[in-house]
Amino acid sequence: LGIMGRKVLLIDFDAQGSATIMLNINKWDETIPNIGFPMSNFAINGNRPQIDDLLDCIQTPSWQKKEKVPNSMLWREVDVPYPFDVIPVCGIELSVAENAIFNRKNYIYKHVEYGFVMLKFIVQKLSDELNYDYIIIDANPSLSASAINALMASDFLVTPTDMAYESIVGISAILQRLKELNLFLPYFTPLGVICQKYKGNRNLDKTVRDIIEENEFDVFNTTIPDVASQVSNSIAKGKLISVDNEKVRKAYTDLAT
CA gyration radius for the chain? Predict the structure, then answer.
């Protein structure tokens, strides 16, 4: 979406921090302003984040590229920015915010009605003050308090799945719960499921698609091809696979379109 000229913000809202790690940000550096700061401050003290607090958390991630020094035999590494912004997750602050609801000393314990809409306040503030075309929230694959916060803050839901047996078992239950949840929290529209690590010529691929459709969820026509070894390679080099692999780059371009 960023390459296509859209202004995009990614919020890493999974305490595991995979997106943060893949964007070369030190997930264990608790001094880096991140989504956990405004969330825990809200949950513990009741301080709704202001736009300046959120601006402190936004950064433009980058990856390192080797290039030849002009008029020289030497090479150098330069930082290449990704075409989108990110609010990372670092340290344990996001987990602290989620667990604050169980401590009677905290604001959110006494105002439990805000427990599932804290992120909604943050996203609304970002939407009102900054002109992003898309705000994408990377949430954990569960129905935890954090995941519910992400759903409450979202207009649309996109569900990625791997083409593996354990994914079949899990996704069927999750899709059913999401369908039920949407009856009670009708704030998000499920757009569909993205099949990843997809080959298309395996019985397993067809089985996964059938299970998804049985749950009355759409499957995106665009699939992300299975290039697992190249994914690992690209992460090790500190750059996203969509930059490094032509097949995957085309798939994500088709998906974004």
Answer: 20
